[in-house]
Design a protein that fits this description.
two-stranded antiparallel sheet; alpha/beta; Rossmann fold; single chain; 12 strands; about 35% helix; 6-stranded parallel beta sheet
């Protein structure tokens, strides 16, 4: 059976769209048995047999971003953005199980003491900034905000002063780049916490894909460096200190892996931040601009960050996707059959 014949598969009988916005426990062994039966019933080939190699990047489809009530739920303007996105995404994954060679979930991975969390900073009275506070070079120069001495001693016990100098450099670098200023985010995607995990319905689809297709999911950890934000899975925001010391590095291995595929599909959260900057970084790394045409963005499986009354990044997200289209990437809908996508 050819890939085209298995490109559109039925949704498994266990999939319940109403569960996508909920947290529940997977029965891995039962799911593995169902996967084996599904593969035999629908004659799905193993991924190693794919003539056209296709990867799917799932950007930060984690509970912290995708389940209402958690720390940074990506609501979009609809108020239910990430939940509806994931219903469409999971259905896309099941329908196209026979075409997706490898799934790469990215995992935003944080500790408490990081440069974008409240505990890293204090004001003159020793209070931490509230989430969503913007810290500018002028704030540091005036003493409005400063590196928390407790954090400095913890993260750089051999030279706490170095961290103060580095933080000034970091905030100034972000400001000069004009991308985003330093935003103090709520504690989120905390390693070891429930919010860190993949959304169960998405994890179920990833595990099912591994069992049906014999293809190990390529999890990509990002964001655990305390000295830099890491919106993109491909590159941290700042790579070096003012003294030239390297503090972070690009994910060259993953970049090279992506370029080996015939098609690269991208979905996840948030359209305005981690997904957008992953794609921008991918564009920067393309040795041949024509390679942009192998990238497909599932626009109905991603939403922008919107905090009512505080911030709305819808415009920035829409501009990013227009930039990607202008560069030659394809913006597609998850319900459109893959065989009908533009080449």
């Amino acid at each position: 059976m050819t890939q085209k014949q298995v490109s559109s598969l039925p949704l498994p009988d266990f999939y319940d769209p109403k569960q996508v916005g909920e947290i529940w426990k997977l029965d891995y062994l039962k799911l593995a048995h169902r996967a084996q039966a599904f593969r035999r019933q629908h004659h799905v080939p193993f991924a190693a047999e794919d003539r056209q190699r296709v990867c799917l990047i799932l950007v930060d489809v984690q509970i912290t971003f995708c389940i209402p009530g958690f720390e940074l739920f990506v609501s979009g303007r609809s108020g239910v953005g990430a939940v509806e996105d994931n219903r469409r995404l999971v259905a896309f994954m099941y329908r196209n199980l026979g075409r997706i060679t490898t799934i790469y979930p990215t995992m935003d991975t944080h500790h408490a003491m990081q440069i974008f969390h409240p505990i890293f900073w204090v004001n003159k009275t020793g209070d931490h900034p509230a989430p969503m506070t913007v810290i500018t070079p002028e704030d540091l120069a005036s003493g409005k905000w400063a590196v928390n001495p407790v954090a400095a001693r913890n993260l750089r016990p051999e030279n706490p002063e170095w961290l103060r100098v580095y933080a000034q450099h970091y905030v100034r670098t972000l400001s000069n780049r004009g991308k985003y200023p330093l935003i103090v985010w709520p504690y989120h995607a905390m390693l070891g916490g429930i919010g860190y995990a993949l959304v169960p319905a998405v994890e179920q689809a990833v595990f099912f894909h591994t069992q049906v297709r014999g293809s190990q999911a390529g999890f990509q950890v990002k964001g655990d460096n305390p000295l830099t934000e890491n919106y993109s899975v491909l590159s941290p925001e700042v790579l070096s200190a003012p003294d030239g010391k390297q503090v972070a590095r690009k994910n060259r291995t993953f970049i090279d892996q992506l370029m080996s595929y015939d098609r690269v599909i991208v979905a996840g959260q948030a359209k305005s931040h981690c997904l957008a900057w992953t794609i921008y970084d991918l564009l920067d790394e393309l040795e041949d601009p024509a390679l942009a045409r192998k990238v497909y963005l599932l626009e109905d499986c991603t939403s922008p960050v919107v905090v009512p009354g505080v911030a709305d990044y819808t415009h920035q997200a829409d501009k990013a996707f227009q930039d990607f289209k202008d560069a030659g990437m394809h913006v597609v809908c998850s319900s459109q059959p893959m065989e009908d996508w533009p080449a």
